[in-house]
Structures are given as structure tokens and as C-alpha cells.
Hints:
single chain; DUF1998 domain-containing protein
Amino acid sequence: MTFLPHRASSVYTARGFVIVNPPSRERIRAIAEAGGPPKALSWVVEGMKTKTVEDIPTSREALKRQLESQNIPADIIERMLDIAGSSPGGIKDSGIVLPSSQCEEAESQAVTVALATLESRVQISELIDSSNANEELGELYRSGYSIALNSAGLSAVDLIEKFPVLTGQFGYTRGDHEPGKGMLKPFKGKHDQGYRIYADIAETEALFVRLNPLEVAKWLEARGHSLSPWNDEKSARVSILLAAKIPEIMDDGEFTVGSDLLSLIHSYSHRFMRIAAVHAGIDRNALSELLVPLHLGFFVYAAAKGDFVLGGLQAVFETELHRLLEAVRFDEHRCALDPGCTDSGAACMACLHVGEPSCRHFNKSLSRLTLFGAKGYFSGLSL
């Protein structure tokens, strides 16, 4: 006789999707006219120095793809690119060359970032420009925020004031989590006519957090991974993109650059989310995450109720960001269930787990040791 302990996730798994900035004709046209996925990738890899992807010159690769989509002969395309590149203020070569197997996912995540920041990205530099250096807030933005970012191993935190999120559910499976191993039970329409997707679109606030690529590259090398040579933030990002292949949600066991990178970004996101809930006055289960691990970042966004947004994340961004980042770095990181928790992966409901509606990775690829262990990310940072 065998016993199967009841566990909701072993009975059924909801099947759904999340789309950030759901594709509208206007937004898709704006990204396409800006240069499409290649330009989005170039913009993110170069550090998002302009406010939106539309503000940077078109790259050679982006223009080439646009011309190819119009069925122009290859020899004519090359001549057009040469002419455009030689003109003042013309196109530039992004210098980013990735294998096709990795380029598609890198571009996809870059487009996610570009869409999310297209209309309402607020940077710390804008807070500095709008404040007086002699006032308390002005001094905080210029000094306190910078110190806190460096201490937390971050390159930037941006506020997204209008963060549209479309969440949809189209069915469920029973038994095994892994797609293809269970039978999908789609939601049916009335009288079994067609299928139904239950979806909700909300416009909410979010924080976009990006880790320092130099520190991440050093951390990966300290973990025993080999990266191509790098000497600045852009080359570090490219080296990580070349080496990392993010595993699927249910993949376990392999020790790769991609698995370590996902664990770092995901663990950082959960710790940030759990602490941000306290500082923003928002219930922990009302915060969710969207990971863009190949670009060393994640979005933490608040669940919107109708057309009302509380503004807790905005308040933290404008006045308390330094305290939030200090708490992420220095607050208690031991688990109440240690040593059992550490012996079993260093992630449990008492330290890193969040509600499954907030984490679409099913609380997998998490470990406090990626942040605070002997080879943790924070151990290599200056105080």
C-alpha cells in the first residue's frame, strides 16, 4: 500500500499566460518603426541610456531586417546599408553578435523591456533634475540613492507608472506540471461551442530593477563559469548573453550559467518583493514579478483593482528607495526554519517563497545561498 500526500499542485495546474503591454497596433507599430527587436536588444545591452528605445539611432541589423521584410534583393540591401552608414547621423553597428539559438530569446526579453518602458519610465536622474541640491530630497537623490544602489549591487531602479498587464487563463492540467505530460482541459464556451479564455487587463505601477552587469559577471566567474573577456558594462552584458541559456521552469539539476543566473535574478526578485511589500504598505500577495533574466532584471508590479492604483511603489521610489535597498542587503537573511531550510535548498515559505499567483515559476530556482552564501552575490560587494 502506498500513500500520496495531498498537494494541490499535484492535482491540477492552471494554464495561462501573462502579456506585459498587450500588443496593440499602435505599440507594435511604434516598436517596429523604432527598429524592432534588434534595436530593442541594442538599447538594453547599451544600458538603456535614453528614455525609450525610440530615442536611439537605428542599428545596421535592425534596418537590414526591415529591408529584408520588404523582399528587397540582398545586394541592394547591402548598398543601401553602406550608404546609410556613411551619412552623418546615420545607422550604427550595434556590435552585438549572438548565436541564433540565443538571439531570439534575448531579443524577446529586450522587447518586453522596451514595451513596458515605452510610455511611462521615470528614472532617478529625473528625480535629481526636478529637485534642489540644497534640499533634503535633492541631497538624498544625489547621494543616498547612489550609495544604496551600489551597496545592493544594482545599476538602476526605474518607476513604471503605467504598467499594463494582461493575465489570461485558458485551462488546466491534472498530474504532471510539465507541458506535454498532462492532458489539457481547456475552458469551453457556452453549449461547448469553441473555447473560452478568461482574461483581465490592468494598468498598474511597477519598479524595474536591474543588477550591475560587472558584479554579476564577477559573481558568475567566482561560481566557476567561463565568460568571454569583458571590461565594461556593455561587454559584460554581451558576455553573459553569449554564455547563458535560461532553463525551462521545470528543468532541474544542471549546473549552467543560465541556471545560476536565473536563480540569482529570481531569488533577488523574491527577497525584494517580500521586503518591498512592507515598505510600500501592500499585501505581499498583491505584488507580482516579471523576470527578464538575460538582461539581469525584473519587474515588481502591484495588482491593480479596477482603475485605482494605490501608489505605494511610487511613494517608495520617490522617498524611501534607499531604505528599501538597505533592507534587501542588510536585513535578517537567516530562515526561521534553519538548518532544515538550508539543507533542503535554502528556500521555503518562511524566507523566499511567495504565493503562486505572484510567482509563475512555482517558487522554483530559488536559494538564499545565491545572495548570502559564502559565494553569494552580496558577499562580493563592498559595504
